[in-house]
Amino acid sequence: MGATNIASKIAKNFGLKTFPLVPALAGIRYPENFEFDFSSLSGIAITAKAQIEKRQFTDQLLFTHRGFSGPLALNLSLFVNGKTQIIFNFLPEVDVENLIQKEKTSKKSLANILSEYLPKSFVKVLLKEKDYNLSQIKKSEIEEVAKTFNHFEIEVEKLDGFDKAEVTRGGISVDDIFPKTMETRKCPGLYFIGEALDVTGMLGGYNLHWAWASAKMFINEFCSGRPGDFDCSEAVVRYLVGSDKLDEAKQFIENLNLESLTDKQKLLDLLLQLASQANQ
Q1: Start-end of H helices in the chain
Q2: Spatial contact of 149 and 169, defined as CB atoms under 8 Å apart
Q3: What are phi and psi of 212, to 5 degrees?
Q4: Digit-coded pLDDT (tens) for 35-61
Q5: DSSP state of 48
Q6: Which of 90-104, 202-216, 232-246 has the least mean pLDDT?
């Protein structure tokens, strides 16, 4: 959306601590020389479980021609720092070793049995196009197949770039910011909000909420405690009414410290006028 690193540049010029800016909530690229042909699975999605460091997630995993995507991969990308190991369980509800043991007398092939739980093309890729006669399968082969489906280890490093990422990780350290006002501790009168700061949430609207919440903290500080800032206060009232927040707009006006009671009355009149227009 045209975001730049201008906020971090300004912060550095004022001696504030910053962290490197990297893409986040982005797709995770397959490793180079990867032994499994996941690129052939482009467009296929499954429900999988993943572990990265000590964190575990279960969600939809989408395969693309160049890497993992979907909600599971995007959340995992928040914790990819250089070469990082991820352990996938592609069948989190099924113990594959026990399944094979139970099906050893079956006339079905192993690929067909696993395809009852996963897309057939995905099963073929994980088995590397190899199939097994269940009546003759060796213990070591069972353990290898079970590990591939229930404990798939992969080392990743690269993410999709900023052009594909949903948010940015890194930015200005929150240690340098007063949390109730968003003003910098070192430079009075200098404020930073939203994605400019080193605050990044998972999928689910958390990053939008942070953008709005930090902006509201700034507005409350910048407009409410400054006598004479009538124009700024009017803009806030119009915004709150436009967002169907009439009660918040009224409370905002009552808390204002304006030089003139006439100005406060003007804002109350404006609130009534906007509310009336909204109801028409």
Answers
A1: 6-13, 70-76, 96-102, 110-114, 120-126, 139-150, 206-224, 230-242, 246-255, 261-279
A2: no
A3: -70, -40
A4: 899 989 999 999 999 999 999 999 999
A5: E
A6: 232-246
